[in-house]
Amino acid sequence: MILITGGAGYIGSHVVKEIAAAGFDVVILDNLSTGNRVAAEAVRTLLRDYDGAGQIELVIGDCGNESLLDQICRQHPIDAVIHLAAFSEVGESMRDAAKYFSNNTAQSIYLLNSLKRNRVDKLVFSSTAAVYGQPLRNPIPEEHPLQPSNVYGLSKMMIESMLPRYRVNYGLNYISLRYFNAAGADASGLIGEKHRQESHLIPLVILRAMGRRDRFTIFGDDYDTYDGTCLRDYIHVSDLAQAHLLALQALLAGNVRERVYNLGNGRPHSVREVIAAVEQACGRSLTCDIGPRRLGDPSILLASSQRAVDELGWKPQYPHLQNIVDSAWRWHRLENWPES
Ligand SMILES: NC(=O)c1ccc[n+]([C@@H]2O[C@H](COP(=O)([O-])OP(=O)(O)OC[C@H]3O[C@@H](n4cnc5c(N)ncnc54)[C@H](O)[C@@H]3O)[C@@H](O)[C@H]2O)c1
Fold it and tell me: What is the pTM of this model?
């Protein structure tokens, strides 16, 4: 049985699908602060097509609620935890640092202490490219110095820096996965990215294309890049989910005891290229505003994910931007989830 915190969220719901489709029973622990209750139901629906899929249970609560965690561990034989629950709005983290230190850092410490007490010794941790801050070079390898330039990245880096101590003192085996820009949606179109407050580029451009936002602003077109806009590394959410399954299997097999992996495609795409891909998906051109640069936005962020390829056998299935955007477009066109 696998405990997945944040499993009602965007990436979490895809991870739940991948893990349950591989035959594992899953308990989702999610407080629905940014997630959706219907995500778990949608995953159950789409798993009907999979032979031998595991069961999914949704528990509503905080990932740092120690008595709730003790109860879950008493009721279920938890073999490993995949910890995705967190807030991840960079701008908000700079305005309200306490919110991020409390939710992402403190709650994770309570979770780690509960795992120790309940003798659960395997963890996959959702980290982020934001731990690197302004890159000294691209593509960024895992050994790159960690110098986060925002509180969100810092709140994750603090947990990453504690994990080796939990390994030494309590035998916790862990893998930290540093995702670059998660995007796209499951091929079924039944699960995808739905946030009450959207800040990610691809859904923002799609919502503009669907007429659900009045404007879309490019933050800076004077960067030292081939078209003046920032370059990012977009990774399909289903490829991220596959990496979680591989990480989990490596931990369960005892092949990995402590390791960090970047997850990206290693291909740069500019903001203008993303807009062009949405135009291609929706079949018409879009007008955009040009605004000033945002403070702290690096011009290029690109992952070196060779380690995950070599050691976990990770092989992204959807490396092309147009496939990623097409899947997101399909999801947004079909999406009819109630607000939760
Ligand atoms: N989306 C990206 O591009 C990206 C990139 C790098 C890292 N990440 C990390 O991936 C993880 C998932 O991100 P996402 O984009 O799916 O976000 P999301 O907001 O869709 O999902 C987060 C989920 O965690 C839940 N949650 C938050 N705090 C909780 C708490 N204290 N207790 C229980 N549940 C809680 C939310 O309700 C939500 O369902 C996060 O840890 C995020 O930092 C995301």
Answer: 0.98
Quick check: bond before 164 cis, omega within 30? no
User: Which CATH number goes with the domain that contains 130?
Assistant: 3.40.50.720
Alpha carbon distances (Å) from 107 to 37, 65, 199? 21, 8, 23
Please identify which of the residues 100, 132, 152, 318 carries the catalytic annotation: 152
How far from 299 is each of 70, 139, 269, 320, CA to CA, in Å?
A: 45, 13, 11, 21
Q: Domain residues for 62?
A: 2-184+234-264
pLDDT of residue 340 exceeding 70, the answer is: no
Domains: count for the chain = 1
CA of 48 from ligand 1 middle (Å) equals: 26
Q: Which residues pair with 3 in a beta bridge?
A: 27, 81
Residue 336: per-residue pLDDT: 82
Q: Is position 18 within any domain?
A: yes
Contact yes or no for 82/19 (Cβ under 8 A): yes
Residues 191, 301: Cα–Cα separation, whole Å: 27
Mean pLDDT across 48-73: 97
Residue 165 burial (C-beta neighbours within 10 Å; 0-12, 13-18, 19+): exposed
152 is catalytic: yes
Residues of the chain with pLDDT > 70, as a percent, come to 100
pLDDT value at residue 335: 84
Segments of the chain assigned E as strands: 2-5, 26-30, 56-60, 80-83, 122-128, 173-179, 181-183, 217-219, 231-232, 234-236, 258-263, 269-270, 289-291
Mean pLDDT of 318-335: 96
What residue owns the CA closest to ligand 1's atom 34?
Answer: 30
Task: Please give the mean pLDDT across all residues of the chain.
Answer: 96
